[in-house]
Design a protein that fits this description.
Blueprint lengths: L1 E2 L8 E2 L4 E4 L3 E8 L2 E6 L13 H15 L9 H15 L6 E4 L2 H9 L7 E5 L4 H8 L7 E5 L4 H4 L5 E5 L11 H7 L3 E4 L16 E5 L11 E5 L1 H6 L37 H14 L4 H18 L9 E4 L4 H7 L5 E3 L2 E5 L6 H12 L1
Parallel strand pairs: 7-8, 7-9, 9-10, 10-11
Antiparallel strand pairs: 1-2, 3-4, 4-5, 6-12, 11-12, 13-15, 14-15
Protein name: Selenocysteine lyase/cysteine desulfurase
GO molecular function: lyase activity
Keywords: Lyase
Length: 367
Amino acid sequence: MAVGLAGSPHQLTGNGPMSTVGDVVDCEIRKWGGESFTVPAGYLNTASIGIPPASTADAVQTAVTNWRTGAARAPEFDEPVRIARAGWARLIGVPTDRVAIGASVSQLVGLVAATVPDGARVLTAANEFTSVSFPFAAQHARGVRVDEAPLADVPRLAPDYDLVAVSVVQSADGALVDLEALRASEARVLLDVTQAAGWLPLSLDWASWVVGASYKWLFAPRGAAWMAGGEAELASLMPHSANWYGGEEPWQSVYGLPLRLAESARAFDLSPVWFAQAGAAVSVNWLAELDLAAVRDHCVGLANQVLAGLGLPEGESAIIALDLPDAGARLAAHGIATASRAGQTRLAFALYNTSEDAQAVLTALRG
């Protein structure tokens, strides 16, 4: 039976052959946009760890096999790095030459935090994911002040601050910041797209900074992250993690002075985590070719199927948080994978989820 968006080239197909992964979990082969995913029924934890398409897992496995057998050669990973960088740039709507690579969001945000002026005032959302807020709070010895405000108030307050640092989609409950209002405020803004990129269409070339990690809706291994900056912002950024890979010609900047960094955002590159980049080159590039409006409608539609079934107001996010007694335990008893965040049970819907997954939630909670 086909489920998802009937007639769409990005149609999701369920009820495929069952497989057993590691002799532990029965999984279903589900397809979207020509890719196959091996998904346990009721897997609603993409906001913690995304499941890779088969081609991404195969690329990582090949890289591991080459490493294991001595066939790996370091320069061979330059091409996956290039492809993943370009794919992520397309996903968020920025030029590729304004994107640097890293290993985690906090490491990249830390570069920005270390460069804000002494005494700068930074605004973030209340209960923001700390990889966004902690790097700025850690600058307190320089007089940097970080204030929290309710997410809905952030755009209104933004002009009073030197920088706003906020996630596009909140990790704890899936709430979306008002991007249009933030843009209209003309404030300097750092946006974390880790819980948004891959399911939410984005066009963020107006933002001062955009950061994001690889291992949720981008379906790649943990260990790859990216940062985009505006031209003026990149020109003022100090390359505190300067290394050989940030050179204009990386394999010619391995030894010796003088400092010779790239003229583009590559000057801020961290030496890549090879296996993560090998996977990201496949899944991120694939996602950048999809109709993300269709992906968003599918994911949000499943989230709203659950909310409506529970008599709760529908939303606009692929992430929902349920404040119901024992919800996590009741869902786990039915084999449904979720996460506990900020005292609530978090459910996250991805393109490989189905209406049956949403119905299983309702069955478990109503029971």
